[in-house]
Amino acid sequence: MATNTILRTNAVLAARNRQHDRLFFSGLAILILITTVVGFAPTYFLAGMVRANLPSPIIHVHAVVFSLWILLLVTQTSLVAAHRTDIHRKLGLAGFGLACLVTVLGLLASTNALSRNFAPPKFPFGAQTFYAIPVTDMLIFAVLVFFAYRARRDPAAHKRLIMIATIGLMDAPTDRAPFAAITGGPHRDVLVCMIFLLLIVGYDLWSLRKVHPATIWAGIFLIVVEQLRVPLGMTSAWHTVATWVQHLG
């Protein structure tokens, strides 16, 4: 009798946690969407998107694919919240393909920026050092998406890995106004990314009474790479590689 009561209680708690997960991760995806739209509104979304004055065609393609990824994230979390996991799974393979495109086009776009000797106005270390930031963004994203795909049969780990992979891209919109006023510079825009990560940590502690292992190792990976990339970009070895890429571009 006691065993049956415990089992029923556990089943109720599990169902409640699933409902909380649907609400939290859907809300987080919408917050990421809002952040992206606000950050890129002046230069892209309010500038006519395909008619926006971007520096090259590859930047246009990159912007479209990046936007599609954010929209897919919102769609996938909404499908889970609506109990349509059947459609969610069918879109999963297409989502993995889109993630590959995000990575490839992110590298091409950052290389194009390097060939134009581009660095944000407030970035003090030059284009070759700045090149380390988008390249490591793609590294973070690709690694975490790969492990998310491997963990696709473990929903709790899968959704946390996908979210943290996308959070790693948020330094792109948050190095622009109005977020730049908060962070103080494009190489410190990771502060906004940390806020997103802390939201997941806080939710884990509230819902699970512990931080999920996927949140721990993915969060550590994100933080470590983001803290090392500017020092890496300032090394002579990186500048040698960046010079070669710049001339090739």
CA radius of gyration: 20 Å
Amount of helix: over 70%
Q: Ends: how far apart?
A: 72 Å
Number of helices: 11
Describe the largest sheet: none
Quickly give the structural class: mainly alpha
Number of strands: 0
> What is the N-to-C order of secondary-structure elements (H for helix, E for strand)?
HHHHHHHHHHH
β-strand amount: under 5%
Spans where pLDDT lies below 50 across 5 or more residues? 9-13
Protein architecture, described:
- The structure is a single chain.
- With 249 residues, the protein is an all-alpha fold.
- Helices cover 79% and strands 0% of the residues.
- It has helices spanning 2-45, 57-81, 85-115, 127-130, 132-150, 155-167, 171-174, 180-183, 190-208, 213-233, 236-248.
- The protein is globular.
- The model is unreliable at 9-13 (pLDDT under 50).
Which terms summarize this structure?
79% helix; single chain; 249 residues; mainly alpha; globular
Question: Would you kindly provide a brief summary of this structure?
Answer:
This protein has 249 residues and is mostly helical.
Topology summary:
Layout: H1 2-45, H2 57-81, H3 85-115, H4 127-130, H5 132-150, H6 155-167, H7 171-174, H8 180-183, H9 190-208, H10 213-233, H11 236-248
